[in-house]
UniProtKB/TrEMBL annotation:
The lineage of its organism: Bacteria, Pseudomonadati, Planctomycetota, Phycisphaerae, Phycisphaerales. Gene3D superfamilies: Glycogen Phosphorylase B (3.40.50.2000). Keywords: Allosteric enzyme, Carbohydrate metabolism, Glycosyltransferase, Pyridoxal phosphate, Transferase. This is glycogen phosphorylase. It catalyses: [(1->4)-alpha-D-glucosyl](n) + phosphate = [(1->4)-alpha-D-glucosyl](n-1) + alpha-D-glucose 1-phosphate. Residues 18-126 form the DUF3417 domain. Phosphorylase is an important allosteric enzyme in carbohydrate metabolism. Enzymes from different sources differ in their regulatory mechanisms and in their natural substrates. However, all known phosphorylases share catalytic and structural properties. GO terms for biological process: carbohydrate metabolic process. GO terms for molecular function: glycogen phosphorylase activity; pyridoxal phosphate binding. The modification N6-(pyridoxal phosphate)lysine is found at residue 612. Its cofactor is pyridoxal 5'-phosphate. Its EC number is 2.4.1.1.
């Protein structure tokens, strides 16, 4: 090898010599649209099936390696040329299709969205992803393209793909880092008018770092990727985009500066200023600072004035259900990396640090990227209904005194890109019985009702073929890994021959972290062995997943599974398959019968692998967490437990492992092997149909992207336009309103609350409430006074709660004012209410400002108890604090 620092190496590109008739293959290979179009994939398979497998499904690399004889032969094949022309036309039609928009919404060409993420998983041959976050991001882009949403994206172009996993003979995970050859990937330099690659820079301590810009086409969507591996940078800085999630905290902050600040600058260098920016996780949160900085620079604004305009256009999606999963940096590190930058924001360093703190006054608190994103985005969401609830609780400290249910974090439940994950035979079956509408409107529940019309025999045959393909592939993969580990020929033969394409096949594939409990199955060896030893009703488990290189606990779980497989007399029924990636996942989610998921409840934000399985008719058996918590119904799959949460994790593991064994022994295995006279598992197939027909329209990324468009992208674009109108007048005005409110808020005092709580209320009667409030130097028009009312639990806490605006009735003088309101109970029960003051500015309606909420003192008795007398329909009220 000749090192680049030893001699000047001049670069040139050699491209495949394709016959003119085959030139459209270049367009198809260089647009990841092919990843969800089986006709396009078939073209490359027809060229050279062995090369297609050898290149890990990389058409760019295949075209560079395929023999000239095969190219010339294809150029003479009328059938191949006809298919090529058809596929090429499909691609051209796709990229020019009209966009989807909610009814009555404005033309989407009037706005643009930029989606920032640290990883993107579109295909196994472009290894710039590690797991669920990246796969979701890739599916997001694919659905945005299918829908025609005006979206582009920014990420990092890693020199080394996420590690390849192999196991030692005793099952301990080892890692190798594959180096990516960009010349053999569908990534291309973005060039300026002079033909030079576009480059920008960011400031790191003591030096500037150059960043080059590349582009990947994902259907209609442009994905821009940032690269610091440039001769202009020192050796250390060239490695910033070296590896996904590699290195220490210093490396992480450098990557996130490049992604957030560098990403915004790269877009501006090519003339793009998106109307809306979507931060998919907190890794890109520095983009908020950079967009604020540009507004300050261009418009001579104060920080708070610029923040109003920027935050209106920012969306933040959190995927992390536990605080430990958030990137946090020591204050000293932030001071070092932003030593000069904070001045361009017109903030002192403490002001900058406060943006990343839950408690702004705690100077020792680490700087949280999630909190920075929250404080610079008006729109925040979790990724499932349950995760939205978890997130509101996790980040409640950012909005002190705001009830958990009102913390402004919503949810958009994740989905998966259907055509990327469906078995090709299943796609053809859907085309036959559902028609083409299922491709165009995947969120339409009516379209999917056609699943019921598919003959049981046809659906089962397709599923059995998928299982057979899975088992053939698994045997081949298992043999290769066992031979490399030096296992005996007899052991290899026993394990490979034991895999059956007729056995009930359970899949478990995901990142190996301790909370996912990958070894829950091994908790009771005697019960497990009873399950595995049956020859009449065999069951086999195919397991895959990677642990983070630094996660010893996750690696230990993998080793425990592998050692069971190696040492138990029934170990051949539990197989661990190395190097989990998109290709491995595709085999598993298409070919298994059961998809197993065993996280500790509340720690799985979503769990998209189960959605991929469900679309293929694979039935889920899972803890009620993430997506399954809202999807589960008894005829769709199985639930492990009943939403219990345990103070003692060991106790929870014991109970839930027993519940899993019970389900397998008493329900799943008997149902799978329950056959009619034709050998058909009718009840099982009925569940498969219900699973596909009801879950596919609800949990696909086309529905998800439509939800983002309705709930976040369009409202953000409108709010951003409102803030920017008249030279940013509304943004400046809002900053001044907030400044005035913060200046005088502590002077607000709720002096007296009056309500008749000493006698019964009839059910349909109302409760009049008056409040005397000292607003100090604020006017009644600057605030909203509200009754917050709801039912009371046994601890005296209010459950749920709804708001009732109170009307200003009288100025009492000296800053004091009287407000009146009415509570109208609609059901009997034990009720309570409290009075609060919040900002009244129109532009703040629906947007909480941290610190601007004032409640009546908690010791004041304000909660009536409402009980129903059946015979008289009366409400008995008594006071409670």
């Amino acid at each position: 090898m000749l090192k680049a620092n030893s001699a000047k190496i001049r670069h040139f590109q050699v491209e495949p010599s394709l016959p003119e008739a085959l030139k459209p293959l270049i367009d198809i290979a260089n647009n990841l649209w092919w990843t969800w179009n089986y006709d396009a994939v078939e073209l490359f398979v027809r060229l050279d099936q062995n090369l297609w497998t050898q290149t890990k499904h990389n058409p760019v690399k295949l075209l560079g390696m395929v023999s000239q004889d095969k190219l010339e032969s294809a150029a003479r094949d009328e059938g191949f040329l006809g298919q090529l022309q058809q596929v090429h036309q499909q691609l051209k039609t796709h990229v020019s299709r009209a966009p989807w928009m909610p009814d009555g919404q404005k033309d989407p060409n009037e706005y643009s969205i930029c989606y920032f993420c640290s990883e993107f998983g579109m295909t196994e041959s472009l290894q710039i992803y590690s797991g669920g976050l990246g796969l979701l991001a890739g599916d997001h882009l694919k659905s945005a393209s299918e829908l025609g949403i005006p979206l582009l994206a920014v990420g990092l172009l890693y020199r080394y793909g996420y590690f390849q996993q192999y196991l030692s003979s005793d099952g301990w995970q080892q890692e190798t880092d594959p180096k990516l050859d960009f010349s053999q990937l569908p990534v291309h330099q973005v060039k300026d008018a002079s033909g030079e690659q576009v480059k920008v820079s960011v400031r790191l301590p003591g030096r500037d770092v150059k960043i080059a810009l590349w582009k990947v086409k994902v259907g209609k969507v442009d994905l821009y990727l940032l690269d610091t591996n440039l001769p202009e940078n020192n050796t250390e800085d060239r490695t910033i985009t070296g590896q996904l999630y590699g290195g220490d905290m210093e490396m992480r902050i450098k990557q996130e500066i490049v992604l957030g600040i560098g990403g915004v600058r790269a877009l501006e260098a090519i003339g793009i200023r998106p109307d809306v920016c979507h931060m998919n996780e907190g890794h890109s949160a520095f983009l908020g600072l950079e967009r604020i900085r540009r507004l300050i620079e261009d418009n001579d604004l104060a920080f708070d004035e610029a923040r109003q305009a920027a935050a209106a256009s920012h969306c933040f999606t959190t995927h992390t259900p536990v605080p430990a999963g958030i990137d946090r940096f020591p204050p000293e590190m932030i001071k070092r990396y932003f030593k000069d930058y904070h001045e361009s924001l017109r903030l002192d360093m403490e002001g900058l640090l406060a943006l990343g703190r839950e408690n702004v006054g705690d100077k020792g608190e680490f700087f949280s990227m999630a909190v920075l994103a929250i404080r610079t985005a008006d729109w925040c969401n979790g990724v499932s209904k349950l995760h939205g609830e978890v997130s509101r609780g996790m980040w409640q400290n950012v909005w002190p005194d705001v009830p958990t249910g009102e913390v402004p974090i919503g949810h958009v439940t994740n989905g998966v890109h259907a055509r990327s994950w469906l078995d090709p035979q299943l796609v053809r079956l859907f085309d036959r019985y559902l028609g083409t509408p299922w491709r165009e409107d995947q969120a339409d529940k009516d379209v999917w009702r056609g699943i019921a019309e598919i003959p049981d025999e046809d659906l089962w045959r397709v599923h059995e073929d998928a299982r057979q393909k899975l088992v053939v592939w698994a045997k081949r993969k298992l043999r290769t890994q066992m031979e490399r580990q030096g296992k005996s020929p007899e052991m290899i033969r026993n394990h490979c021959e034991a895999l059956s394409d007729d056995a009930l096949t359970v899949g478990f594939a995901r990142r190996f972290a301790t909370y996912k409990r990958g070894t829950l199955l091994l908790r009771d060896m005697k019960r497990l062995e009873r399950l595995l030893e049956s020859e009449q009703r065999p069951i086999q488990f195919l397991i895959a997943g990677k642990a983070h290189p630094a996660d010893g606990g996750g690696k230990a779980l993998i080793r425990e599974l592998v050692q069971f497989s190696n040492e138990s007399k029934l170990g051949h029924r539990i197989v661990f398959l190395e190097d989990y990636d998109i290709g491995v996942a595709r085999y598993l989610v298409q070919g298994c019968d059961i998809w197993l998921n065993t996280p500790r409840r509340g720690m799985e934000a979503s769990g998209t692998s189960g959605m991929k399985a469900a679309m293929n008719g694979v039935l889920n058996c899972s803890i009620l967490d993430g997506w399954w918590d809202e999807a589960y119904e008894p005829d769709l799959g199985w639930a492990i437990g009943r939403r219990e949460e345990y103070a003692n994790p060991e106790q929870g593991d014991d109970i839930e492992s027993r519940a899993l064994y019970d389900l397998l022994e008493n329900q799943i295995i008997p149902l799978f092997y329950q056959r009619d006279d034709q050998g058909m598992p009718r009840e099982w197939v009925a569940r498969m149909k219900q699973c596909i027909g009801r879950l596919a329209p609800a949990f696909n990324t086309n529905r998800m992207v439509q939800d983002y468009t309705r709930k976040y992208y369009l409202p953000a674009a409108r709010r951003a336009a409102t803030m920017a109108a008249d030279g940013l007048k509304n943004s400046v005005d809002m900053a001044h309103v907030k400044h005035r409110l913060h200046e005088h808020w502590d002077g607000i005092k709720i002096l007296n609350i009056n309500a008749q709580l000493d006698k019964p209320l009839e059910l349909r009667q109302t409760l009049d409430v008056t409040a005397e409030i000292n607003l100090a130097k604020l006017e009644p028009s600057e605030v909203r006074v509200q009754i917050f009312a709801g039912t009371i639990d046994n601890d005296g806490d209010m459950v749920g709660g709804s708001t009732i605006d109170m009307r200003h009735e009288k100025d009492l003088g000296g800053g004091k004012h009287k407000f009146v309101g009415v509570i109208e109970p609609t059901t009997s029960g034990r009720y309570g209410f409290a009075v609060r003051v919040i900002p009244g500015a129109e532009l703040l309606d629906g947007f909480w400002e941290p610190g601007l909420i004032c409640w009546d003192a908690p010791e004041r008795p304000v909660a009536p108890v409402v009980e129903e007398k059946v015979e008289e329909k009366k409400v008995v009220a008594s006071s409670a604090s």
